[in-house]
Amino acid sequence: MGFYDRHVLPRLVDLTCGSAALFPIRQWACEGLSGDVVELGFGSGRNVGAYPGAVSSVAAIEPSDTAWTLAADRVASASIDITRSGLDGERIPFADNTFDAALSTFTLCTIPDPRAAVDEVIRVVKDGGSLHFLEHGLAPDEHVRRWQRRLDPIERRVAGGCHLTRDVTRELTDAGLTITSIKQFYGARPKSLGFLSVGVARVG
């Protein structure tokens, strides 16, 4: 991992994914979370202010030291315990059935093996628990998809392996999760970057 990926990219992600316009959508994703939560791709902590009061603790899975440093003030100001608890969403360092819920925001697009990450969520979240998600990905409109396919190699290079063409809902359902609520819409322009899926999937 070079200087750009270690130091520049986490700051760019903090700016682009930390806009005020996205915060209400983060709140939708977090709505209904409770108990002990594992968060994949904690990043710079942009979800901290969106956690409901019923959340007891957050185990933050975050590979970037720079992102974790950027999150320091948000973590310190939180009213709940937030602990950096792992570096890799494909290998969550907790026993089976540890958590009440999981949260993933703008993460499954970038994890090299999203199926492995979802399988880990299924393993560490108790049966009847849930994965709350906010992700961007493959658009429903073919003219937008054409641009996504054209831009995907560039996106992967400049955005740390982020894919524009991942079908997030299919990744979840193929792994055996049941999506119980979802909202899908273009949340930003250009549309190739801005097709969002926000929802909840049941584990077990």
Indicate the topology.
Layout: H1 3-16, H2 23-30, E1 35-40, E2 55-61, H3 65-70, H4 72-77, E3 81-86, E4 99-105, H5 114-124, E5 125-136, H6 142-158, H7 168-174, E6 178-186, H8 191-194, E7 195-202
Parallel strand pairs: 1-2, 1-4, 2-3, 4-5
Antiparallel strand pairs: 5-7, 6-7
Structural write-up:
By secondary structure, the protein is an alpha/beta fold. The chain has one domain: 3-Layer(aba) Sandwich (Rossmann fold). The chain is 36% helix and 27% strand. It has a 7-stranded mixed beta sheet with strand order 3-2-1-4-5-7-6, sandwiched between helices. The longest helix is centred in the last third of the chain and has 17 residues, at 142-158. The N and C termini lie far apart (36 Å). The model has no long low-confidence stretch (mean pLDDT 96).
